[in-house]
Amino acid sequence: MKRILPWFFILTFCVTLFAENVTFDKCWSRSGDVSLTAAEQGYQLLTHTGSSDFCANAPLRIPVQPGDLVTLSCDMKTEGEGSAGVSVILYRKNEVVTWSYGGQSIQNTGEKKLVSQFLIPGDVDAIVPRVIGAGAEKVWFKNCQIQKTGSLPLVTKRETLTLENAFLKLEFSTHNGAFSVRDKRTDRLWGASEKGGDFFVLKAEKRDDSLYFEAISTAMLKFNVTIRLEKELPECVVVIDGASEQTVSQLLRYPMPFLCGANDRIILPINEGFSYPAAGKVIGPSSLYTYGGHGLCMGFWGVSEDVVTADGEVTGGAAYLGIFETPDDSGLEVRTLENDRLGVTPWWGGQLGKWGYARTLRLVFQEKGGHVALAKRYREYAKKIGLYVPFTEKVRRNPALKGGIDRLIGAANIWYFGNKKIEMYQELQAAGITRVLASSGGSPEEVRWCNEQPTFLSCRYDIYQDIMNPEKYDAIGFRHWPHMGKAWPNDLNWNENLEWRKGWAVDNKDKTQPRIPCGVLCDSKALPYAEAYISEELKTKPFLARFLDTTVASPWRECYHPDHPMTRTQSKEWKMKLLGLLGERFHLVCGSETGHEASVPYCDFYEGMMSLGPFRVPDSGRNLMEIWDVPPEKTEKYQVGEAYRLPLWELVYHDCTVSYWYWGDYNNKLPSLWAKRDLFNALYGVPPMYLFDRKRWEQNKARFVESYQIAQPVSRRTGYSEMTDHRILTPDRTVQQTRFANGTVVTVNFGNSDFTLKDGTIIPAGKSLIK
After folding, report:
1. Which residue in 78, 72, 41 sits closest to 58, CA to CA?
2. pLDDT tens column, 324-361
3. 616: which of 133, 209, 620, 729 fits an S-S bond (Cβ 3.0–4.6 Å)?
4. What is the spatial distance between Cα 319 and Cα 365, in angstroms, rounded to a whole number?
5. What does each C-alpha distance from 255 to 158, 175, 329, 332, 360 come to in angstroms?
6. 553: helix, strand or coil
7. Rounded-to-integer distance, Cα 541 and Cα 446, Å
8. What's the whole-model pTM score?
9. What are phi and psi of 742, to 5 degrees?
């Protein structure tokens, strides 16, 4: 039963405890010039020319106490490509707790009254109002006021409520909502962090076999939480709910993170998978969303203890898995906790600015098994909710896909930029590169030739996201996807400021002028354009596959257009209908960018799943043909870093999809890392990707052939099989092994010295062994 407490019970209003009219006298910029001047009509004007963040601070520090209700308001208008807003700095004992809190922002709009109401979090004793912004921007502001209008009756009594089953003992703290979990099987305590709660507990109680509490966030969101243990499983379910029409102005972070041990690793499904020690610093993004391929590609995270055996193998000790059962408006944050180790906090966003619906998180505790056990538990969950659809099931549902999917399994993804494609493909065949996903499109004759080859899959690029204003065709020098021109402007996605959402920016033919942004098509409008264009093209070019760029790489996007509003959940559903159109309507093998598990039932391959997004070379999506002789440090260390990468995607979905590198991050992109990429292809059982023109092929023909012989065979042998295990055989993680359900075993030595297996087999440095 949901209980929403009345406002008069929660807060005391009507009496203004302090009120300040705020002016600003100091400004700062991380880069570029910034100035603060008086302007007409009582405005102050903050002008910034740089590309990074800037601010203006008020010359007063206001004393506050935890639980104080504060209202901050300001009349503001902006001009430029950046954004600006108002917020406060939080202080504790003269030290900054956070530089921006409780804010509201605008972007390139006329005058708007910004009003933000928030509660002061624990241990904060002072605040300073500020204007903040980012990018080149002019910001006019006046009538800035800050008021304290009430306070919150806090739950200050420290009590512990307990839940227990045969596996777990959970202890809940009534004063802050944190809970710890002890695994009775191992005696491992997943202790509760006291850091990071951005809410106040109003009431807490035990109800039969669950715990229940009511709370209010510092951003004034009223919510309630139910926590229960599964009776016969080492699992905990957390349900967060509230009134659906409440405004959500900030993320809600709950549960608070567990404290990690000295040997624990953070495990994140960023693309194929990534991990790093909890005893170090955050590597890559500290905040990741679950609703798109450039965030988390699967709806979970994990923490696992590394245990090194006597013979040097790194095995998984105690671990826990967090499963987002409602992943469409959620994500996580990794940050340093009070024990100087990292911890993971899930966060929950709004739905079109409102709370909308209940959020559910499942916590699974494992005795041992590490990342493999966590991935296999998640695989079972994916089966339960219908995301796991193996190739065999896809063919059973749609027998017309059988031939295309079999051509896909084990096919090297070839992006050839040049003329005479048939001649080039014949050269590939003669060199032994016989299984090919021919991604570069082609003429009707070239497409038909590919279709006549039993191990070639004809494919072309397509996109239904970025729409150029037809009035800008002359400025960019070409007609940008003209069949989509009618989408401008009525079918564009609108952001929360009721402006059309900007997407990919196209180079201006006048190079002295800035790039011109496309508008983002509302996902609810894409299908008619796709159906019309694809059906017409297939009449003359009978492709067997199609690659839809950005569809699952880009996040599910809310749309605020009054004629076609859309939640992220609806955005996801429309994206899946677009992908489903390829197989269901046209019987095409379907590919998309990066990859996300929501699309597994509809997608057959992904370009970019093998490439960890945060660690690609700069501008990899624009400068496709550029070869990097000297790799960036982050690319060498993390993109092909065996100490960090994990095949999480393959452990869950290997028999459902085919994973490739990104088209700006392919096998031959960085010559010094080429051999290592080939080894990852072999280890993960996925085929290689090459991008070249005639000159590059002729210069590196022997190297391409050598690469194909290393990277391709396992993908063909295992494409229909589950990856059942992934082992790390040395403490430095340089020797790794994967096993597949059909009996294939792949061992790879990324190290600089030879490695001897227990049976005496020697794997030379930089080589692989397939059995």
Report:
1. 72
2. 999 999 999 999 999 999 999 999 999 999 999 999 99
3. 620
4. 6
5. 18, 14, 16, 11, 11
6. coil
7. 9
8. 0.91
9. -85, 10
